Amino acid sequence: MEATLAAERALMAAMRNLLSEAAQEFARQFAASQGELDRAQGLLAEAIESLTASFHGLATGTAQHEAELAKAITALQFQDMVSQLLSHVARRLEALERVMRELDGLAGALDHDAATNDLPAAVASVTALQGKIAAALRSLPAQTRNNPVGQCSMAGGDIELF
Length: 162
Fold this sequence. Notes:
Elements: H1 2-60, H2 65-76, H3 78-116, H4 119-144
Helix pairs in contact: 1-2, 1-3, 1-4, 3-4
């Protein structure tokens, strides 16, 4: 009985640590996603402002048409950058969703195990799920590390498309 209680306590401590780790990783991933969305919105606003100014310049005279057209083309390239940023955010959120599904599986297993009162099966079930969740959490940084857009400005000559 004492060994069972010790195993149960150890499992509960491991689960608390795992849930704490999950919460911390989710917070990091959501903060990074928010930063990427903020950057995308800034790029979009800057590009629209530049595009509007360029089109006004095109309408005012022919001597500056070439320079204004170059600015307009640079401003239009924001779409590719924003699309890449949003795709990266989507990948980040998909990775988080996979971890959350594992956590949901854990909750279901805990409910099932509590209803059956089969402690050895509960320990085995939770231990297996704990390993899957821990592996999913450890894989998050690698799945979301490579942001395809490194710039934060649409200044002329700064466009790097991949």
